[in-house]
Write the structure tokens for this entry.
Amino acid sequence: MLLEEQRKKIVEIGKRIQSDKLVPLTFGNFSIRDFETGYVCITPSGMPYETLTPEDIVVVDVHGNNVDGKRTPSIETGLHCAVYRKRPEVGSVVHTHSTFVTAWASCNKEIPSVVAEVAALVSGKVKCAPYRPCGSKELAEVTSDCLGKDDAVLLGNHGVLVVGENIDTAYVNAVIVEEGAKVAYYAQHIGDMRVLNEEECAYERESAKKGYGQK
């Protein structure tokens, strides 16, 4: 099977993401880029995560053309591919519909960086791309543009997209943004919420790139 290990990994992460309630039902989509071939492995459209097997994962090229697999790929394949084309260092894209990030996206509001972990992912705040229809070229373009060099961006009235050097990192980033959205929501209702300034955010982002985790 072409890119069997990557396809197995997507099945594993998909089940974990659903178990962690980052997506309901068949919402969301996840992909891995294989740097050697340049191909992208992505979840199929509308299939329950608990039923997925590696054979269900679809392999496409970076322009979304089918390379291997019997299933229809996610309707957001164009979105994933747009990110990969603009961000050559990105190895995985994860799109979720977790509750708090989707609530912020539904208000078309940016998520302020009130916790250091969110600041490590974005340049000051989690920006919100304007609403465009699901699966459209317009959604792919405005979202990938709004993401820029950040590792997370909201999709207006839709959800969130996060990236990482691999799918494990992208999964962690999805959890971090959801927790950051939750903390920001509660903090603004508790009192005078302190948002990290640009200098503090830049420090956290650079620090995370250089020194966090095991070598």
Remarks:
- The two ends are 32 Å apart (CA to CA).
- Strands lie at 29-33, 40-42, 58-60, 66-68, 92-96, 111-112, 125-126, 128-129, 152-155, 159-164.
- DSSP finds seven helices and ten strands in the chain.
- Residues 4-210 form a domain with the L-fuculose-1-phosphate Aldolase fold (CATH 3.40.225.10).
